[in-house]
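Issue: copy button drops trailing tokens. Both records pasted manually instead:
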Amino acid sequence: MEKKLLRKKQLGQSLVLGATGLLLLYICYIGLKNIFRYNAFMLEYRHLNTQVEEETQRNLMLKRQLSKMNDADYWEVQAKQKLGLICEGEVVYRLYTTIPKK
């Protein structure tokens, strides 16, 4: 009779120990899974922050360009550079690095 009680007690302890071991393994698995998920999230977060900073810099540059466009001198310089505009009374000098053919 005592052997049966001892055997039942050992079986109960083994079951508790096994269940505890399985629970511990499950918790470790969830922990590792969440660590990997956290690392992936942080990588994406850093990437997005970098993109936001780049777009902020681009936005500032475009705002500066837009504010320059409100100036009439800006448009005059652009017309001279891109369209070859010559205002009345201006003299244009052209400098050649090679001798032009006639």
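Record 2 (pasted manually too):
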Amino acid sequence: MPNVYVGSGAVIGDNTLVMAGAYVGDNVKIGANCVIHPNVVIYNDTVIGNGCRINANAVIGSDGFWLRAHENGRTRENLPQRQRRFRGFRRDRRVHDDRPRRV
């Protein structure tokens, strides 16, 4: 694919599609049967399981969204993401089932 960067030590599983403009950092592991849409950024040392779909322009493995006050009370620091491993949905799971629903 054009303009795809794959860092050193990165492992991409079988039948995984990485689309244009994606960035896969160093030592990233992506499982089998995944789809990485355009312009996705996956930072270093992130592990993505089998069957994941990451939509366009997503950033995985970066700093978290929250800040916490530092001990001195004057500065703030980023909270890291709690999870650096991501698992996909099972492909054999049925979207609709035949169980009766309450009305």
